[in-house]
Amino acid sequence: MAELKINVPENFSVEEADAFRQEINGMFDGGEKQFLFDFSRCVFIDSTGLGVLVGIHKKCVKLGGTLKLKSISSQVMRVFELTRLDKVFDIQA
């Protein structure tokens, strides 16, 4: 099964996190488990957004799927580095 490309919101924070989580959970329910999250439009992520990503990552691992992140700006990447989540996620250029 091919990776499903998902565009991450521009401001991935508490306001968008629940809807994003529900959307991805619906995709899990539909049998998807190979994801590529495109951060090219994302300029801000908060702890809620990070928590959603961690939850999705755990579910992917449990189901034998994959989660890759790509096109992360230096500002957003700094948040991943500060939280050491850059060591957890498969981050592509």
From TrEMBL:
GO molecular function: anti-sigma factor antagonist activity
NCBIfam families found in the cross-reference section: ant_ant_sig (TIGR00377)
Source taxonomy: Bacteria, Bacillati, Bacillota, Clostridia, Peptostreptococcales
One Pfam family recorded for the sequence: STAS
SUPFAM superfamilies: SpoIIaa-like
Designated name of the protein: Anti-sigma factor antagonist
Domain (STAS): residue spans on this chain: 6-93
Family: Belongs to the anti-sigma-factor antagonist family.
InterPro entries reported in the protein's UniProt record: Anti-sigma_ant, STAS_dom, STAS_dom_sf
